[in-house]
């Protein structure tokens, strides 16, 4: 192996290790959060301290807040350079099942914590045809659900026709599409084109490591976000109109 190849391999290996560590660390936070009892509503000040030094009461961390923070950290850690490294993509795929299980546990616990509440609206999410990476989609799903949205998760490797059929069936106002590989961007564009033809009122938000604002504009998306929380903010602004 040449010196350049060795450096490239070492760099890819370091990137894989760093991102897997970040993902598993955040998943651990999620799992621990799921086993915690619900915290008190506020953190009370120390009654023995002088009144003038007392801090204002602070809201205790909730499970929802912990989940949001952990999911945002996964998104931030996984986004840079994922598509550039086949080894990194393979490593992320290997951790996807564990991450997805943790996300589902968080979702179940969030429902128990918050009780029944009115839904803001329904959003469908899909990883486009030809792409089997769904960690980013799952992060968006958890955050949307925690903010009060009903999510129809179409999964990964989803053909355009299935996305359009879902949008028509549910009368959706918003669909989120994810792609992690450059080769699947045309499938994303095809999906958007079909949605425009069959569900013209439905907005489309897109995300994924290979996308940029320029690419999103070129393929006709209504909104591009580089992280999961950006998708949540867009959904809230759309449904609050």
How are the SSEs ordered, and which strands pair?
Layout: H1 3-35, E1 42-43, E2 58-59, H2 63-78, H3 86-114, E3 121-127, H4 135-146, E4 149-153, H5 160-170, E5 174-178, H6 185-198, E6 203-207, H7 213-219, E7 223-224, H8 228-239
Parallel strand pairs: 3-4, 3-5, 5-6, 6-7
Antiparallel strand pairs: 1-2
What does the model show?
It is a single chain. This protein is α/β, with parallel strands linked by helices and 241 residues long. The protein contains 8 helices and 7 strands. It has a 5-stranded parallel β-sheet with strand order 4-3-5-6-7, sandwiched between helices. The longest helix is centred in the N-terminal third of the chain and has 33 residues, at 3-35.
Describe the structure concisely for a colleague.
The protein is an alpha/beta fold and 241 residues long. It has helices at 3-35, 63-78, 86-114, 135-146, 160-170, 185-198, 213-219, 228-239, and strands at 42-43, 58-59, 121-127, 149-153, 174-178, 203-207, 223-224. It has 8 helices and 7 strands.
């Amino acid at each position: 192996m040449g010196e350049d190849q060795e450096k490239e391999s070492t760099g890819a290996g370091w990137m894989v290790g760093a991102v897997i560590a970040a993902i598993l660390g955040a998943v651990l936070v999620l799992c621990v959060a799921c086993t915690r009892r619900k915290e008190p509503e506020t953190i009370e000040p120390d009654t023995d301290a002088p009144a003038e030094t007392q801090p204002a009461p602070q809201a205790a961390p909730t499970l929802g807040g912990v989940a949001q923070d952990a999911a945002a950290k996964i998104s931030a850690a996984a986004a840079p350079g994922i598509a550039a490294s086949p080894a990194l993509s393979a490593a992320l795929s290997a951790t996807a099942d564990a991450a997805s299980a943790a996300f589902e546990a968080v979702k179940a616990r969030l429902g128990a914590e918050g009780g029944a509440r009115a839904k803001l609206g329904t959003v469908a999410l899909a990883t486009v045809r030809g792409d089997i990476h769904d960690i980013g989609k799952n992060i968006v799903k958890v955050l949307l659900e925690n903010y009060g949205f009903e999510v129809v998760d179409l999964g990964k490797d989803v053909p355009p026709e299935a996305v359009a059929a879902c949008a028509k069936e549910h009368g959706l106002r918003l669909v989120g599409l994810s792609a992690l590989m450059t080769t699947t961007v045309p499938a994303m564009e095809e999906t958007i084109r079909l949605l425009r033809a069959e569900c013209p009122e439905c907005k489309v938000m897109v995300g994924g490591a290979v996308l940029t604002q320029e690419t999103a504009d070129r393929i006709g998306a209504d909104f591009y976000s580089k992280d999961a929380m950006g998708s949540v903010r867009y959904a809230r602004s759309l449904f609050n109109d």
